[in-house]
């Protein structure tokens, strides 16, 4: 989840790993981790992995023939 905050004319973006759960009649959110310090490419891989996409190492994806 990406959150955006504005303060004194600047925009701040945070990348948070969160989960939602129900507590009685209310829906609550819990922050599991702050991913803001990670590179954007790695955040994209984490996002795609959480959606169910699988990744294969390059060495296993191709066979090298001489």
Name a few traits of the molecule.
Transposase-like protein, 3-stranded antiparallel beta sheet, alpha+beta, 23% helix, 44% strand, 66 residues, single chain
Distance between the termini: 46 Å
Overall number of strands: 3
**Biggest sheet record:** 3 strands, antiparallel
Q: Indicate how many domains the architecture comprises.
A: 1
Trace the largest sheet across and list its strands.
Answer: 1-2-3
Radius of gyration, taken over Cα atoms and rounded to an integer in Å = 18 Å
Strand content: 35-45%
Structural class: alpha+beta
Compressed to H and E, one letter per element, the order equals: EEEHH
How many DSSP helices? 2
* C-alpha geometry: flat
- Low-pLDDT runs of 5+ residues are none
User: Mean pLDDT across all residues, rounded?
Assistant: 87
The helix content, as a percent range, equals 10-25%
Protein name: Transposase-like protein
Organism: mine drainage metagenome
What would you say this structure looks like, in words?
- It is a single chain.
- The protein is an alpha+beta fold.
- The protein has one domain.
- It has 2 helices and 3 strands; from the N terminus they run βββαα.
- It has a 3-stranded antiparallel sheet with strand order 1-2-3, with no helix packed on it.
- A hairpin with a 2-residue loop joins strand 1 and strand 2 (10-23).
- The longest helix has 11 residues, at 40-50.
- It is flat and about 60 Å long.
- The N and C termini lie far apart (46 Å).
- The mean pLDDT is 87.
- It comes from mine drainage metagenome.
């Amino acid at each position: 989840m990406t959150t955006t905050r504005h303060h004194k004319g600047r925009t701040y973006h945070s990348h948070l790993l969160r989960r939602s759960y129900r507590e009685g009649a209310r829906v609550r959110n819990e922050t599991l981790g702050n991913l803001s310090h990670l590179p954007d490419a790695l955040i994209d891989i984490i996002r795609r992995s959480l959606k169910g996409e699988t990744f294969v190492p390059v060495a296993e994806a191709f066979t090298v023939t001489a």
